[in-house]
Amino acid sequence: MAKRKIIWSSRAKLDLFEILDFYLKRNGTVTYSKKLNSKLRKAIKLLEKHSELGIQTDVLNVRNLIEGDYSIFYSIGSETIEVISIWGNQQDPAKIDIPAAARILSCGNH
Known about the structure:
Elements: E1 5-8, H1 10-27, H2 31-46, E2 55-56, E3 63-67, E4 70-76, E5 80-88, H3 98-107
Helix pairs in contact: 1-2
C-alpha cells in the first residue's frame, strides 16, 4: 500500500488535548498522559501504510480505528489520512457526532 500523509483536523487536535489534559489533572502527573499520547500516535501512524486498518462506519468514507479505550475516526484521501476525531469509548455513544465532524473536515483545507 502507498504511504499517505497524516493530517489532523482541529477537532481531533482538541480531542487529544482534552483527553491528555483530563489525565494530567486527574493524576497530577504527566506520566500517563505521555504514555497515552504515544500509544494513540503510534496507532495513527500505522494508518500511513495500512489505511484500511479501521472498520468502516455508517458515515460515508469515515473509518474507526479502536486503540484501547479510544476510537480514532478518520477519512482516507488519495494521498492523505485525515484524523477527524478521537473519542473516549467510555462516553455516552449517543453524544458522538461524526457526520458533523466529517462535514467540517470536508470544508477545510486538505
